């Protein structure tokens, strides 16, 4: 009986680790392929080892420009969505108003709509008001703020709803005015939620392909560059960018985790 | 994306109930809401209405000459009959990959919640790690993994699961593998959040009442993880049904899903009414299935 349970316990763990291997396999391949020396433009196999992709990451024309474009859009979309979404989250948790159910539905719907529907709707709208010819940086930004907003509201709202308001009341008892109580107590406590929402927005925006594809005009973001070159043959440097992205994100998360451990909230 | 998901998952497990602040009346609430909600109305709600309108335009118009609103409902019939196969493929691929994701995610989420001990945070980071690099680059990596001379194909050929000329790339198997992989974290995280909240004493109690491991799982753990299971399946199914990146990069036109059709109708063939009709059908089909599923699963409070 005990032996049976031991096997059962470890069986779950073994399956779990195998699933993690499945999840990591493509990342391993992205790193591997960043050292690939492909025999032809359309080769997806590992043909030979080279460091050339790493010494000349911006070799393929337009690729690094597309990364810069994605970073710009990601930064501005994060700023817009985080500010607008945080305000909405505060209103939802801290204020009474009419139309709460309709508001919640409008926030929920974009998260439940497939991207292809959102992207094509925006294109239909922009075309019908005669803006189809001007699509580009601004329309990508507008779309990204739209689909990041709901995720910001949900993330900040979860943090805000978990706050103990007796802390604020204590601050007010100690003669803090509302403004001081907000900036000294509430905001620092909500900040981890806002930061998480901002990181989420950035990765959603930076990585978005489908909505962008419908509304990009002639502006090329990094996912648009990868998509475009998939038809002609992917330059191996794409995997260098993929590897760098992975390393930066991992470093951010791990250092965030260490900081939290040092200063228990 | 990850970071917030983990944050949200962790945030849901606070032990004591915090004191909710009093909600304030008055106009300032509307001021806080206004900019965000205006954005959603202008760039989500109005476009969706415009999409429905476009789907009813006279199909004989064009982008150059302009479209006339003729309430042309036959557009829908036309879309359904011309693109039956991609519609069905989207449905089948999304259902199969959601089922597979559930099978893979449940043991993983269970192990993280109950068996991981001090490795818990590390395993959670590992779950969200795939998000750290680009969706398209990851999907292209599957092209290398499943390639004709890759180790996966060689192993399957050696085991006689694949014939000597058998391949994975450019088949439904490749597209479903990619879909399952790409949306797996969306299944793991809500499942983990649900499992993590389960009071272990309930499972012990069921054991005290002579339930064996399987009965205790079926009668206690599984029902208590239903909210996570429902949220996870929806978060996986919805993007999978609308996705066309996997079908495009790992499949061929024979594996095209409705997303590929919508993309091509809108951006290549410029047939806006047909494209919009396909989009609206996809949206309605998903809403209908979600409502039906949530009713059946008995977790209506989720919506």
Give a written overview of the molecule.
- The complex is a heterodimer of chains A (265) and B (303).
- Chain A has a domain at 64-234: MetI-like (MetI-like fold, Orthogonal Bundle).
- Helix content of chain A is 76%, strand content 0%.
- Chain A contains eleven helices and no strands.
- In chain A, helix 4 (100-112) crosses helix 6 and helix 7 packs antiparallel against helix 8.
- The longest helix of chain A is centred in the first third of the chain and has 32 residues, at 2-33.
- Chain A is globular.
- Chain B is an all-alpha fold and 303 residues long.
- Chain B has a domain at 84-269: Orthogonal Bundle (MetI-like fold).
- Chain B is built from 14 helices and no strands.
- Chain B has helices at 2-11, 28-55, 74-82, 84-115, 120-128, 135-145, 151-158, 172-196, 200-208, 213-224, 226-242, 245-250, 258-267, 272-297.
- Chain B is globular.
- The two termini of chain B are 22 Å apart.
- Classes of the chains: A mainly alpha (265), B mainly alpha (303).
- Chains A and B meet through helix 1, helix 3, helix 4, helix 5 and helix 6 of A and helix 1, helix 2, helix 4, helix 5 and helix 6 of B.
Major β-sheet annotation of chain A = none
Classify the fold: give the CATH topology of the domain at 84-269 in chain B.
MetI-like fold
Class per helix and strand makeup of chain A: mainly alpha
Low-confidence blocks of residues of chain A? none
Mean pLDDT of chain B: 87
């Amino acid at each position: 009986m005990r032996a049976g349970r031991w096997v059962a316990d470890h069986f779950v763990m073994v399956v779990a680790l195998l699933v993690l291997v499945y999840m990591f396999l493509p990342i391993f391949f992205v790193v591997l392929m960043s050292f690939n020396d492909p025999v032809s433009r359309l080769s997806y196999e590992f043909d030979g080892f080279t460091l050339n992709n790493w010494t000349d990451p911006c070799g393929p024309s337009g690729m690094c420009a597309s990364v810069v474009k994605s970073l710009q859009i990601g930064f501005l979309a994060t700023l817009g969505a985080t500010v607008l979404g945080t305000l909405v989250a505060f209103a939802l948790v801290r204020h009474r108003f009419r139309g709460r159910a309709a508001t919640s539905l409008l926030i929920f719907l974009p998260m439940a709509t497939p991207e292809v529907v959102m992207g094509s709707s925006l294109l239909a709208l922009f075309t019908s008001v005669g803006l189809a010819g001007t699509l580009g940086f601004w329309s990508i930004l507008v779309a990204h703020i739209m689909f990041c907003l709901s995720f910001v509201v949900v993330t900040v709202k979860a943090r805000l709803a978990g706050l103990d308001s007796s802390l604020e009341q204590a601050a007010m008892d100690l003669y803090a005015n509302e403004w001081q109580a907000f900036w000294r107590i509430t905001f620092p406590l909500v900040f981890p939620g806002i930061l998480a929402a901002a990181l989420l927005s950035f990765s959603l925006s930076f990585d978005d392909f489908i909505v962008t594809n419908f509304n990009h005009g002639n502006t090329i973001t990094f996912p648009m560059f990868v998509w475009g070159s998939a038809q002609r043959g992917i330059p191996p440097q794409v995997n260098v960018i993929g590897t760098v992205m992975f390393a930066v994100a991992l470093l951010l998360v791990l250092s965030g985790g260490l900081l939290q451990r040092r200063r228990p909230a | 994306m990850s970071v917030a998901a983990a944050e949200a998952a962790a945030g849901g497990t606070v032990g004591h109930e915090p004191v909710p602040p009093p909600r304030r009346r008055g106009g300032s609430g509307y001021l806080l809401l206004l900019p965000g909600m205006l954005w959603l109305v202008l760039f989500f709600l109005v476009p969706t209405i415009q999409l429905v309108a476009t789907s009813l335009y006279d199909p004989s118009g064009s982008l150059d000459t302009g479209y006339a609103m003729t309430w042309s409902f036959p557009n829908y019939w036309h879309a359904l009959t011309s693109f039956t196969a991609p519609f069905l493929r989207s449905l089948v691929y999304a259902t199969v990959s959601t089922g597979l994701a559930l099978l893979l995610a449940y043991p993983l989420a269970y192990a993280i919640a109950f068996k991981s001990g001090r490795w818990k945070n590390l395993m959670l980071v590992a779950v969200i790690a795939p998000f750290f690099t680009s969706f398209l680059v990851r999907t292209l990596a599957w092209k290398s993994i499943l390639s004709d001379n890759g180790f996966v194909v060689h192993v399957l050929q050696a085991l006689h699961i694949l014939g000597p000329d058998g391949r994975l790339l450019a088949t439904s198997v490749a597209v479903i593998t990619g879909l399952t992989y790409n949306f797996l974290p969306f299944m793991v995280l809500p499942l983990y959040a649900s499992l993590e909240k389960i009071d272990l004493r309930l499972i012990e109690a069921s054991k005290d009442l002579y339930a064996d491991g399987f009965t205790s799982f079926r009668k206690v753990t599984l029902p208590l993880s239903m909210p996570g299971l429902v949220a996870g399946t929806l978060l996986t199914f919805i993007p999978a049904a609308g996705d066309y990146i996997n079908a495009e990069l790992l499949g061929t036109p024979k594996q095209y899903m409705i997303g590929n059709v919508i993309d091509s109708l809108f951006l290549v063939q410029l047939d806006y009414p047909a494209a919009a009709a396909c989009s609206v059908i996809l949206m309605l089909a998903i809403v209908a299935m979600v409502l039906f599923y949530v009713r059946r699963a008995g977790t209506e409070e989720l919506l």
